[in-house]
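Async update (no meeting this week)

Hi team, since we skipped the sync, here's where things stand on the single-chain job. The sequence we agreed to prioritize is pasted below, unchanged from the tracker. I ran it this morning and attached the output directly underneath so nobody has to dig for it. Comments welcome in thread, and please keep replies under the output.
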Amino acid sequence: QVQLAESGGGLVQAGGSLRLSCAASGRTFSRYHMGWFRQAPGKEREFVAAISWSVGIISYADSVKGRFTISRDNAKNTVYLQMNSLKPEDTAVYYCAADQSWSTVGAVKGIDYWGKGTLVTVSS
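Output:
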């Protein structure tokens, strides 16, 4: 069992930055691939970024490449999402996700565990 708790969301102006954190409980955190998803009002939840349990494999959605950076600290059971050059279209609830399979960590239906989400609002 893995429990996830996101933090770091808030209101920021376009062009600004935020860093989201996701603290995980459970002794096996280091064996889970971790991901970030987001859901804007009236839209479906979508993949943002993922990082493998052993550092080396990272994936990003095209919409955030070059602006967002995912990282993890297994010693702290925490995964991060550094978001730079934020745009109003990045406004959404951001969810942390954990999955034991890399093949499904980028798919909403394949996720093993979800956090409750943190709201990011980017004003124009």
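Quick observations from my side:
The chain has a mean pLDDT of 94.
The longest strand covers residues 18-25.
Reply here if anything looks off.
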